[in-house]
């Protein structure tokens, strides 16, 4: 119960904070939002992409297992993006396809096509914090970045991968998120995410994502070739490799609806 | 040589005291390195096969270290609104437990349901605000039928519910981590208990076990050690009838204990449930040395010798016996190095070091202290007169004592072999401990408290989706269910059956395994996509889905029954599904095996210790004949002791498995003292009868006094709430008493009957110092 006492003392202390500190906090939040907005703005207007993804899962003993999938994405300017993921490996889920309409304000909509039953099922669940394909990524780590989903606070500057970065704290607005907060390193040169620390609901470091080998596409958009997620609590890790990144595939809304899901192979 | 140190101790006592103090300080400085470990792993060496199997399973699947909280409302109904709300609140709060990775309860169970063409995946109780009559009925219905919940997280009668908190300890400072996590949960229970005075909370799980190990050790350290001091001081004052002699003894004890703990620190030995009682044991043994010195000195003072002469008299007579008895006692404790249990090895080594330190201090520091302290002539005590009477009795009645004693001993000793090894970690704790009461409650009202994990490996990537494999796993889980000792089985096949039913519009007819591999795989894909953080299937499926873990919850069995169950299950698996790789592991299983393994190794070392100790006796007495006589009083007490134990309890745990070795080392002392005095009597030209009387008179009282002190010491140990310690104390104390009886009745009777020609055989040079 000591913790509760500490918390109440802290909150009492916060009330007594002088106005200048409050103003400082406001400034940090404004700066955080500015950085996040710039990050979003710089990654707007790319249209659509298709990418082949390979996941290499490792357990505490270093044993590996692979998952393969393709992801088609359509940018939606006034709402969350639409994504269609088609599973290729392991073989017994080949042809399964997962369609998401990311929403900014309401829960995302999700459908799953299972070739073995040849039917589309809508998944009604608030949960998006569980492991994606048994990996160290959660579905929420892979869905599109939307400003409305978080509150932002600029913390300080730091250097990662030789890039000078802003370090911004992101607090998820969704109570069903698996995280209490994330600390994000965004490079100053191109506003690309270099690293994310995820904190679990008891505010312990859960896992760390590092993003590697950014390449420039269409002279404007940066996409990474490799992402590494390392779990700090159970020593498991997952490497995510992106290959064959293609832009301007000419996708439309029709490629991201129920019918498209059944056609996907 | 002997003259030199003795003279320096007597003529320049302050010099002796100074260097003893410096030595003590140097050694005791090591106490800063001491730390405490309370986790169950201290019972197992790093190459213990059951622990390796367990750790491999923990690595392949997620760790299963846990805290279980059982919630028992007086109303006897966990499904009323108040209780469901409490369970929901506790579940939510439990996620804040330090190092927790998962929390399971009936409220956050991921219930799946078909809704038209949709699959709904949601907490069984998402929000207590929705608790209508209908919702409560549904929660009850699901809880009572869902295999994952029924008799695991809710009792069969719906009167008790449980919350299971899984933790992933970083194992940097494991003891502290256990305390942090467990005390957090205790705090939660206390908080909710205050709000709900009509609800009882009980705690179990691996962390509760670790915590209990640590807290019982702490209790022993804070209650038994001071109690021991008190008892010893009282005994000394009473028996030695001299407060100053008692003071000298207490100083020796303190110096010995501080040095022993310091040496342990320097050697990197940690304190644990076993070694925390080393001070008690060392104290007891150190007292014996001092008593011999002081009693002899008092004897000499009564003879009218000066203080210095009396000390000199006592030292020349006692130095060799003290040295020999310390060596034999150390050997007894050092044989614990052959134990399978690391902390028992530590106990042996620390005590052996302590005994040797006590020997050094009692022949150097003790005479120096006695030299400085005033000494008065202590009147002859009743025991001394009693000894004379006893000697007369034995001399007169030895022809009766011998056959009666022999028959009695053999009759009782014959039962020794009927003892059974039984090691159940839970049973290490006395029924008066909170941990034991919690487990007994859960065992009686909710589910078993022992787990056994089985990993079944299909040897193929994605093999768990194979219908043939699933059918086999389901058959095994059915077989487990049919075993009378099993209360619950957690198997992935239940998830597949449920999903198959959901995908067929919740038609109960489809509550069965999917019949194609891709179907099973895709159900699982869909389900996994819908699970929240911490409630994934990684605790049941490995990385590439080639293997699954089935957890059977069992009633708390004896170790023989548990290993028997393991054997039965593994041979069933080998027979029914030889194509798959199967293994079993759990902490309960580790304890079940360690008892047998340890007993086996300890029994093997016993003859070795006996030969070594008897050999030493032969050398020190320089007589094969007396060495042969010594075998009876050395072997019989332990045999008779274990015989009595068989009649009293019949169960042997880790603590008792070492009693034979350590008691051998201790009881040999009596024999050494008695026989060396007997021998001296013969050398001084007495008859067998005269020599026996001489032995009685010169050493009988000291033996009686040391026995009383030793028994008091081990009786204090017997008061521990931790049975490894209390049983060890009880049986060792009993064996020491038996040893005294045998030494004072049977040994002289034997000598009187068979050592008629003793006098002529002795051709020991008169220069011998003993």
TrEMBL record, chain B:
It is found in: Cell membrane. It is a multi-pass membrane protein. Keywords: Cell membrane, Membrane, Transmembrane, Transmembrane helix. InterPro entries: Acrflvin-R, MMPL_dom, Mycobact_MmpL, SSD. Residues 246-372, 626-753 form the SSD domain. The chain crosses the membrane at residues 223-240, 247-269, 281-299, 319-338, 350-370, 401-418, 602-621, 628-648, 654-675, 702-722, 728-752. Pfam families: MMPL. PANTHER family: MEMBRANE PROTEIN MJ1562-RELATED (PTHR33406), MEMBRANE PROTEIN YDFJ (PTHR33406:SF13). This is MMPL family transporter. It comes from Alkalimonas collagenimarina.
């Amino acid at each position: 119960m000591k913790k509760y006492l500490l918390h109440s003392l802290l909150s009492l202390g916060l009330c007594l904070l002088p106005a200048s500190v409050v103003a400082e906090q406001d400034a940090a939040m404004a700066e955080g939002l500015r950085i996040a907005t710039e990050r979003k703005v710089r990654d707007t207007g790319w249209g659509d992409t298709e990418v082949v993804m390979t996941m290499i899962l490792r357990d505490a003993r270093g044993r590996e297992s692979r998952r393969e999938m393709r992801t088609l994405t359509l940018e939606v300017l006034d709402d969350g993006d639409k994504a269609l993921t088609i599973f290729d490996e392991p073989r017994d889920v080949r042809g399964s396809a997962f369609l998401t309409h990311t929403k900014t304000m309401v829960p995302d909509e999700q459908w799953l096509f299972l070739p073995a039953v040849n039917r589309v099922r809508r998944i009604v669940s608030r949960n998006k914090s569980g492991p994606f394909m048994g990996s160290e990524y959660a579905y929420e780590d892979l869905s599109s970045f939307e400003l409305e989903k978080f509150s932002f606070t600029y913390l300080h500057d730091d250097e990662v991968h030789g890039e000078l970065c802003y370090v911004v704290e992101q607090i998820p607005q969704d109570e069903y998120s698996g995280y209490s907060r994330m600390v994000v390193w965004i490079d100053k040169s191109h506003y690309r995410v270099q690293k994310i620390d995820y904190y679990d609901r008891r505010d312990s470091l859960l896992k760390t994502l590092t993003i590697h080998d950014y390449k420039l596409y269409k002279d404007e958009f940066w996409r990474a070739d490799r992402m590494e997620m390392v779990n700090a609590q159970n020593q498991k890790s997952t490497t995510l490799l992106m290959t064959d990144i293609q832009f301007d595939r000419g996708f439309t809304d029709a490629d991201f609806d129920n019918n498209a899901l059944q056609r996907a192979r | 040589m002997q003259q030199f140190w003795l003279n320096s101790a007597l003529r320049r006592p302050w010099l002796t005291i100074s260097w003893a103090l410096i030595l003590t300080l140097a050694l005791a400085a090591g106490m800063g390195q001491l730390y405490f470990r309370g986790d169950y792993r201290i019972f197992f060496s790093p190459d213990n096969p059951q622990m390796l199997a367990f750790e491999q399973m923990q690595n392949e699947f997620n760790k299963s270290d846990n805290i279980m909280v059982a919630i028992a409302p007086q109303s006897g109904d966990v499904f009323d609104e108040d209780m469901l709300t409490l369970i929901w609140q506790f579940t939510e709060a439990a996620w804040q437990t330090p190092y927790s990775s998962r929390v399971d309860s009936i409220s956050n169970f991921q219930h799946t349901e078909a809704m038209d063409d949709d699959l709904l995946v949601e907490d069984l109780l998402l929000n207590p605000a929705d608790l209508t009559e209908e919702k409560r009925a549904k929660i009850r219905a699901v809880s009572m039928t869902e295999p994952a919940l029924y008799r695991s997280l809710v009792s069969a009668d719906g009167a008790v519910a449980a919350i299971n908190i899984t933790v992933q300890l970083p194992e940097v400072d494991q003891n502290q981590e256990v305390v942090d996590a467990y005390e957090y949960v205790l705090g939660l229970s206390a908080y909710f208990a205050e709000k709900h005075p009509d609800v009882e909370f009980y705690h179990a799980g691996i962390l509760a076990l670790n915590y209990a190990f640590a807290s019982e050790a702490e209790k022993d350290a804070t209650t038994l050690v001071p109690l021991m001091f008190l008892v010893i001081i009282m005994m000394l004052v009473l028996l030695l009838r001299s407060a100053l002699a008692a003071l000298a003894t207490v100083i020796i004890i303190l110096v010995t204990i501080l040095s022993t703990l310091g040496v342990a620190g320097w050697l990197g030995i940690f304190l644990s449930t076993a070694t925390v009682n080393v001070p008690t044991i060392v104290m007891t043994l150190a007292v014996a040395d001092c008593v011999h010195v002081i009693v002899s000195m008092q004897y000499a003072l009564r003879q009218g010798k000066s203080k210095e002469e009396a000390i000199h008299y006592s030292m020349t007579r006692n130095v060799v016996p003290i040295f020999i008895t310390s060596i034999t006692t150390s050997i007894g404790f050092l044989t614990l190095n052959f134990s399978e249990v690391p902390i028992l090895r530590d106990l042996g080594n620390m005590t052996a070091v302590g005994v040797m330190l006590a020997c050094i201090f009692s022949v150097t520091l003790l005479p120096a202290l006695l030299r400085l302290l005033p000494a008065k002539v202590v009147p002859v005590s009743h025991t001394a007169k009693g000894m004379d009477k006893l000697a007369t009795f034995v001399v007169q009645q030895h022809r009766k004592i011998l056959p009666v004693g022999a028959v009695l001993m053999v009759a009782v000793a014959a039962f020794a072999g009927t003892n059974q090894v039984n090691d159940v970690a839970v049973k290490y704790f006395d029924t008066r401990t909170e941990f034991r009461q919690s487990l007994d409650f859960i065992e009686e009202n909710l589910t078993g408290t022992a787990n056994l994990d089985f990993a079944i490996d299909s040897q193929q990537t994605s093999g768990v989706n194979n219908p043939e494999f699933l059918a086999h796993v389901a058959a095994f889980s059915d077989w487990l269910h049919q075993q009378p000792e099993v209360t619950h089985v957690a198997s992935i096949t239940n998830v597949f059956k449920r999903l198959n039913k959901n995908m067929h519009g919740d038609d109960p007819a489809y509550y069965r395994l999917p019949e194609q591999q891709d179907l099973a795989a895709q159900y699982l894909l869909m389900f996994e996509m819908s699970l929240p953080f911490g409630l994934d299937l990684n605790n049941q499926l490995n990385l590439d889905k080639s293997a699954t873990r089935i957890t059977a919850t069992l009633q708390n069995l004896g170790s023989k029954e548990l290993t028997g169950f393991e054997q039965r299950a593994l041979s069933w698996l080998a027979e029914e599904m030889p194509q798959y790789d199967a293994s079993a592991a759990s902490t309960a299983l580790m304890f079940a095996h360690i008892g047998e393994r340890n007993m086996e190794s300890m029994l093997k070392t016993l003859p070795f210790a006996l030969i070594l100790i008897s050999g030493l006796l032969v050398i020190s007495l320089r007589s094969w004949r007396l060495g042969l006589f010594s075998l009876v009083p050395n072997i019989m007490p332990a045999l008779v002791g274990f015989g009595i134990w068989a009649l009293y309890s019949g169960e042997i745990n880790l603590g008792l498995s070492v009693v034979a070795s350590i008691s051998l080392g201790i009881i040999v002392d009596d024999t050494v003292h008695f026989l060396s005095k007997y021998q001296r009597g013969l050398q001084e030209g007495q008859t067998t009868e005269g020599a026996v009387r001489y032995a009685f008179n010169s050493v009988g009282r000291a033996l009686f006094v040391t026995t009383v002190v030793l028994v008091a010491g081990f009786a204090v140990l017997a008061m521990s709430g931790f049975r490894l310690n209390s049983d060890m104390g009880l049986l060792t104390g009993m064996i020491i008493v038996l040893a005294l009886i045998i030494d004072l009745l049977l040994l002289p009777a034997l000598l009187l009957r068979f050592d008629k020609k003793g006098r002529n055989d002795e051709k020991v040079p008169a220069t011998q110092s003993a």
